[in-house]
Amino acid sequence: MTFASSEASAIVAMGEAMVEFNAARADAPDSYVRGFGGDTSNMAIAAARLGARAGYVSRVGNDAFGRELLRLWADEGVDTRGVATDPVAPTGVYFVTHGPGGHDFSYLRAGSAASRIEPATLPLDVIRGAGVLHVSGISQAISASACDAVFAAIEAAVAAGARISYDPNLRLKLWPLPRARAVIRATAAQCDWFLPSLDDVRTLSDLADPMAILDWCHGLGASVVALKCGRDGAIVSDGHRVERIAGHRVDAVDATGAGDCFDGAFVTRMLTGDEPIAAARYANAAAALATTGFGAVAPLPRDADVRALLAASV
User: Which of 10, 56, 216, 279 is the most buried (most CB within 10 A)?
Assistant: First the structure.
């Protein structure tokens, strides 16, 4: 599935996509299954699988991995008019291993093509045509120029009437906490929908109580906040009403990409007219299903799967 050049995407995500190598087999820990990842790419694919018109803004290398990512997005119906091919820098790669403490990531992303994105090279026509622009802290942490590009993209999107969805997705291996806090606070102040994990925002805010954390998030400027709590579900607030949404019992094997799936599902439902709590219930179910297979992309669910889980949970 491809998009005509005149068709705008309802959701445009921006950031870095990578090729994933996942040690998915417990009986063969040195054998890796090739897949795909990158938080905002996962979000865009999740949204597309759930029925949204989604597009992506990034850079990939002029290499086999970059071409595989372009084929992936085409197959998933994600508009790639905002993706440039870098003639010099490579596509990023990461490895996932699994152990008693969960999954662990190792990245080969320094100097990646995506990290070379900058304000001057942004596809402003794609960004201005979006109904929602989705960005993340990782989009900002991979380089100073990428951080500047995210702020420039937000400015262009807001000026064109788009809403902003933001997942801080804190990765302290990429940047120091003081800089992360400053950038994330400045971005949250410009977003409509703030979608952090509870663990991340505890680190960012130095608070422990979820209700205090919600107040802190709203105080930054976000009108809607959804705290992702992993297997414990989510807590969502629109500034007037707060609801705790219980987690779903599923046969979870790998949580890679579950939070990104939540983001894609939440934004998709908000665009259809759901109020935030209903959107979060749907997103919570979608994220649970995303843990039932290995890798960030392969287990991302379809709308019928999400609705079946919701119906079974009533």
Answer: 56
